Each structure stands twice: as C-alpha cells, then as structure tokens.
User: Fold this.
Amino acid sequence: MNEGDSGPHPPGGPPSPADRVAPPRLVIGYDGSPSAERAVRFGLRWAGSSRGSVWLVHATTHERHVAEPVTDEELSAPARAIVRAMETWAADARSQGVAATTVVREGSARDVVIAVAAEVRADAILLGTRGRTDANRLLLGSVSAHVVAHAPVPTVVVP
Assistant:
C-alpha cells in the first residue's frame, strides 16, 4: 500500500473508530443468593476490564407467604439486607472505576430485570441460577429461563 492509502492498520497500530467497542452496559439481577453473588463478581470483572457500567437490580414483593403472623419489620429485613449488600457491591465497583447503580423495584424479578435492561439500553443481562430441580422449576417458574427467552439483549446465566 502507498502512504496515502486508507487500508487497515498493521497489528499493534491504533484502532480505527469502527474497531473501538463501547464499554458494556450490564444489568445484573441480585437476590442475595450465592449464584447471584457469582454473577455480580463476573459482571464487575467484565465491566472493570473495559470501564463499563453496571446496574444491580433487585425486585421486591409485598406478598405474604408465611402461615404464622409476622411483623412488617420481619418481612422487610431480608430485603434491607439485600439492598445493603447491593450498595456494598456498588461502592466496591465505583472504587475500581466502574459506574454502578442500584435499582430496587416492586414487581416480579423477571419483569423488573427485563424492564431495567430495556430502560438503560443494556448490552447484556447477568443472572444467577438458584439451582432448582426440574420439578420445582415447573411449579415455581424460572426467572432466568423467562429472562433468557424474553430479554431484549443477550443473557448470561451464572451457576
């Protein structure tokens, strides 16, 4: 090629604007489970390697699934613990140069995660899997299976 030709750069040369990849925008569903924590760690490594952004998302519900009387305080304690954990993850991400936002919304986890992904124009969704048996999955449904089937972007399910 002659000096004035506009061909591809040699290996190690500067990337062209078309070669540059935008930092990833990742939505990570978080429910406090060990697999959700693994999904967060995976997502933070991914975003951190390219200065991406993460949205840690938790869905709450006020349905009472207990047979004995409990106070509102007892019902909300697990959700508060999850929110505290999300804030800790987000602070850690920010200290490593990753933009991190926590989102807590009322609704079903599968719908909330998909909605947030669409709103923030996510590039991918990351979820943990609770490891339910096939029988439990049939009875209870699978958040990850629903999100994989209906998400507007690729979904990574972390065991």
Observations:
- The longest helix spans residues 72-95.
- Residues 1-7, 136-140 have pLDDT under 50 and may be disordered.
- The chain has five helices and five strands.
